[in-house]
Structures are given as C-alpha cells and as structure tokens.
Amino acid sequence: MLDVVMHAPMRFADVVRDALEREMPLLHPAVIRARYHCSESLPIEDLVSVLEKIAVRGSHGVLLKAPNDPDVAHAVAQLHAKGIPVITFVTDLPDSERLAYVGMNNHTAGQTAAFLLGQWLERGKTADVLVSLSSTRFRGEGEREAAFAEAIQRHHTHLTCVDASEGLGLHEATASVVRQRLKSHPKICAVYSIGGANAAILQAFSEERRTCKVFIGHDLDADNRPLLQNGLISAVLHHDLKHDMRMACLHVMRAQGFGSGQVLHSLSAVQVITPYNLPQA
Q1: Per-residue confidence in pLDDT tens, the chain, 281 aa
Q2: CA torsion through residues 8, 12, 17, 23, sign
Q3: What distance in Å separates the CA atoms of residue 219 and residue 179, rounded to the nearest whole number?
C-alpha cells in the first residue's frame, strides 16, 4: 500500500495518478495499491497533518511532492522512524530522511531551457525573459530557475531574467502575477514557465497586448498539449513520469525487503517536445 501525497495543481496530479496506475500492474507478482492525498493549495500545517496521520495508520511507503520546509522534513523523519520509506518526486527534500528522489534532473532542465531560448531569440538584442515559478518553496523549481539563470548569465548576457512566482500553478493567481510583471517590465518578450499555468500566462500577455516570441514550458499535461499543438508555446521539457513511478515503487519494494539488487536509475532524462515530435498518447 502506497500513500501518494501531492501539493500540486490537479492537472499535474491527474497525470501522476495516471502514470502510477499504468505502472502498478506491471510490477506483478507484487500487488500494489495507492491512496491519494492531493491538494492545489495545502498549508504546510495541513500537509504535515496528512503525513502524521499516515505515520499513525501505517503504510508501506509514501510518494511525496511537497515544499522544502523544516516541518515537512520533521514529518518525514517521523515516517522514517516508523519504518515507512518516503520517496520524493519532481521536487526534493535533500535535508530530510527521505529514502530517494525520483524525477527529472532539474539542473539539466534549466540549462536546456536556457540553451533553447538563447538560440531562438534574436542574438545580441537586449530583452527580458519572464521566469515563472509556482512557488519558491519547491526545491525542484528553484533548481531549474538557478540553472537557467546561471546559463543565461554565462552564455546570453544580452538577456535579463524577471521572476514571477507564488501563483501556485493556479490560473487566476498566476495571471495576476504575470500581468504585474508585464506592466513593470516592457522588455519581456519570452517565457520560461517552470511552475505551469501556461494558459494563464498567455492570457496575461494577450490582455496586456504583448507578444511572446519564445515560450518554454514543462510537462505534457492536458493544458500544455493543445497549446503546443496550436503553436502557442514553443517547446515543452518533458520527462517519463511512468519511469519515475516505477522507480518509486521499486525503491519502496526494496525497502520492504523485496526486489533484486539491480541499480535503480532515479533521474529521468529531459526530453524536448515540439509540435513536430508530440507523442500520440
């Protein structure tokens, strides 16, 4: 029995759930079931309460996407003390007693976004790039942002990064933050969207009558697929969530005394998806 705890927009939680439900039957003869605890806007104290209840009730493992917060790390330590392994995914809690992290190499993702954007924007012409995060509390998003900013500063000195965060990946909150940035930074002409809500970002550009020349996003979810198909975003940095879920399950199985001694490759490769190589499913 796995408990999946996610602080994430429901569009992403749905993609994760679909990936896990597809992978669990493939782990036969092991029989794995999952309980889901997902919320788009979950205060830290409520998230900690969920983890504490799991520690009391019991579980064979927890898959966790949560902010990098000391109280969350303490709750992970309580689970560890009860013999319940915690696997972080998408965003890590490196200073906690989590067993492993699975997901995209966030540093590589940020560098890849900077490379693509730098190639597609006009060379030598000064411009601002909007870097949108759902929240600075998520370590994975912070790693992407830091790698992106470092690569831009090193290789594309004519570009300047403008932060837009705390929209939590939600439509209205993200649109509001982006509108404010567009009003105060007239040179913004490109976007690296780390935290999602890309339809909201495009809406803000439209409302402010601004042009977005290059738009790099993350994940092939229900929102991004039609935006990519219609040419509204330039590329999506994607990773194989099914691989992530399989690795998470194998980590939990091994922690419970099952599984071989094979090396588990926890990091997913970064895939650049354009309208021309969009997977059918």
Answers
A1: 999 999 988 888 998 999 999 999 999 888 999 999 999 878 899 999 999 999 999 999 999 999 999 999 999 999 999 999 999 998 999 999 999 999 989 999 999 999 999 999 988 789 999 999 988 788 888 999 999 999 999 999 999 999 998 888 788 999 999 999 999 999 999 999 998 889 999 999 999 999 999 999 998 888 899 999 999 999 999 988 999 999 999 999 999 988 766 667 778 889 999 999 988 76
A2: negative
A3: 23
> What is the number of domains present in the chain?
2
Residues in the chain, how many? 281
Same domain, 114 and 234: yes
Looking at the fold, whether 163 and 63 belong to one and the same domain comes out as: no
pTM, two decimals, is: 0.85
* Greatest extent of the chain over all pairs of C-alpha atoms, in Å: 59
**Spatial distance between the Cα atoms of 9 and 119, rounded to a whole number of angstroms:** 31
> 281 lies in a domain?
no
Q: Which helix (H) or strand (E) holds 19?
A: helix 10-23
* DSSP conformation class of 183: H
Beta bridge partners of 39: 7
Residues of the domain holding 233: 106-238
